Amino acid sequence: MSLPGSSDLLERVRAHTQRSDFAAVVRLLDGTPDELLLEDPELGYHAAYARRRVGRTVAALDLVKRLDVVVRRRADAWLIRRRLNLEAMLRYDSGDLAAAEQLWWHVVELATRDGDLALLSAAHNNLGVIQTLHDRTDDALATYNRALVAAHQLGDRRGVAQAHQNLAILYRERGRLLEAESHFLEAMQHARVSSSDDVLGRAEEERALLLLDQGDATLARAAASRALARLRAIEDANGAGEALRVLGIVALRERAMEHAAEYLAQALEQARHVHNPLLEAETEEALGVLALATGDDDGAQRYRDAAERRFGMLSAEPWGRRIRERTLELAALT
User: Which of 57, 168, 228, 325 is deepest in the core (most CB within 10 A)?
Assistant: First the structure.
């Protein structure tokens, strides 16, 4: 059995994907059984990718795993590489960092062999994130720079934007704020040129924390609010959750405790809805700081214990310790 008009359907899906309208892809394919999506490997891949982008992590991972055999038997090499990369992203989203890292090294191997610079850049960007979570900052710096070189060679402005954003976060966390600002501005410029609203929104929300580092809560709140609106408009559920967490931290800095509680509660709900354990742990740390600031020592300990367990499950204890320290700093409670 195959989908009626599957050729026309694939063209429509490709068009939506080209415009980064992943919510439209999900709506178009909603109600289509996965068994039928598996009949056309590329259609199945686009469906899984779109599900991930709108926060349907579990459904996306289930489909992308079922695509494995079908893609390897019937698809071209480019789709084999991209299915592997998508599975790595979904493993990462689900908190299985070890599996994600192993898969991304395999993607690097295949992309290098086949001269796929776009995928090589993306894989290096993602490997750098894992290295950052493990506090291997020198490795992460080298990996992000490899991603940047590959993206520049290809003229991939989106890939360039992602590499600059990741470098900005790394420099921000090292306290090198001027370098971080330079990379954030580069990331935002390339994201605008490439019409990558998701990357632009992520850069805006992460830059908000830099602005908070520099003591400007007003500008930080404005940047995070823009990011939230942008990411909600494209139905980027994970990104919106990150923006809500940042707004909660900004409200903590401003001692607007009711607003902080509201934003952080929404961020936690979003993290659980999209099954994002890293965002959940980071938000629990922020809720622990909120409890501490309002005199609820028992509540603070409960949130911190929960965050520690989750960071431990992710094998990201170094990042968890940094998040605790940084959230206290950003909230000006140290």
Answer: 168
pLDDT in tens, 254-290: 999 999 999 999 999 999 999 999 999 999 999 999 9
Whether the Cβ atoms of residue 331 and residue 287 lie closer than 8 Å to each other: no
pLDDT-derived band at 1 (thresholds 50, 70, 90) equals: very low
pLDDT digits (tens, 9 = 90+) for 21-53: 999 999 999 888 888 899 899 999 999 999 999
The pLDDT score that the predictor gives to residue 334 is: 66
Cα–Cα distance between 2 and 44 in angstroms, integer? 12
